Amino acid sequence: xxxxxxxxxxxxxxxxxxAPLAGYSTSPFRRWLKRHGAEVTxxxxxxxxxxxxxxxxxxxxxxxxxxxxxxxxxxxxxxxxNIAGAVKILLPLRPEIIDLNMACPVRKVVRRGSxxxxxxxxxxxxxxxxxACEAAGDIPVTVKCRLDSGHGVGLxxxxxxxxxxxxxxxTLHPRTMKQAYRGTAxxxxxxxxxxxxxxxxxxSGDIKSGAETPAVYEQTDAAALMIGRAAIGNPWIxxxxxxxxxxxxxxPPAWKAKVKExxxxxxxxxxxxxxxxxxxxxxxxxxxxxxxxxxxxxxxxDFYKAKDPVAQDxxxxxxxxxxxxx
Length: 326
Ligand SMILES: Cc1cc2nc3c(=O)[nH]c(=O)nc-3n(C[C@H](O)[C@H](O)[C@H](O)COP(=O)(O)O)c2cc1C
Hints:
Blueprint: E1 5-7, E2 10-12, E3 16-18, H1 27-35, E4 41-47, H2 48-53, H3 55-62, E5 71-76, H4 80-90, E6 97-102, H5 107-110, H6 122-136, E7 141-147, H7 153-165, E8 169-176, H8 187-196, E9 201-204, H9 213-220, E10 224-227, H10 237-245, H11 255-273, H12 275-281, H13 283-289, H14 296-305, H15 309-322
Parallel strand pairs: 3-10, 4-5, 5-6, 6-7, 7-8, 8-9, 9-10
Antiparallel strand pairs: 1-2
Helix pairs in contact: 1-11, 4-6, 6-7, 11-12, 11-15, 14-15
The structure holds flavin mononucleotide.
Flavin mononucleotide binds next to strand 4.
């Protein structure tokens, strides 16, 4: 089931991509996932308008290290001129991909005609794609979208126009804007769109374990798979997916090794955000990290109360004393 596909000039053996996650996909997060087998990483969505106004303020969102490559930098906006201007600001960084967000359902984004709102305005969506492709030159442009309100009818046409514009591939999270994250991602709708799409379609939505990735390829006929929420606090999902796709069994690491990595990730966040904010940032991950582990709730609560790195270390050391698999 190994895919060996070529996407955006990179050879991907498994087609495993880290999904963009606003509030999570920082540089330390990308590096952590990359070390565990994500083959492409993504920035979170970056405002094209914001980038043009005060580029310095957006630095944390678009700066990356070479070991995060191949990397996609994702822009959102609704004005073609601003998208082109923002692409030009990012070009000197030579990301492997510039991605346009036409997927975000958040009110403050769609109210301004950006994100998933663009799917209801195909001419404008097309104009943004043209502007991005022209500005990006030899750097591939991709689009991330959802199902349109007509449940794929509009999108099928738009995919053809994206191909004309010069877009290289499209990621589809098969839920509508109205659904946001409710219900389930419609894998059948994805499959139908993929069958008729002139562009490779990357699948995103509800992949909960690495073990299920062969089945998701079967169900969707996707060119590649994105993993989002299930990778928060669990970068090992990519190793599990690689093993499943290669038909091998997977043995997750012991808790002791996992805790060591979580704390190293926390230390990278402290460097990026400074100690005050870094201590808060890691809290978002710890519930996911301990998910499913018996008795974890108390440690998650204690971790939230811990006010500095030393106190956080202590909570996790206590956790390790209670689990056997170390
Ligand atoms: C907290 C959060 C932040 C997200 N941020 C972005 C983003 O910045 N850009 C984007 O295209 N999608 C974003 N998404 C959507 C995800 O990339 C993904 O398509 C969606 O969560 C479904 O995949 P999953 O079930 O694997 O998480 C976000 C989703 C969540 C839950």
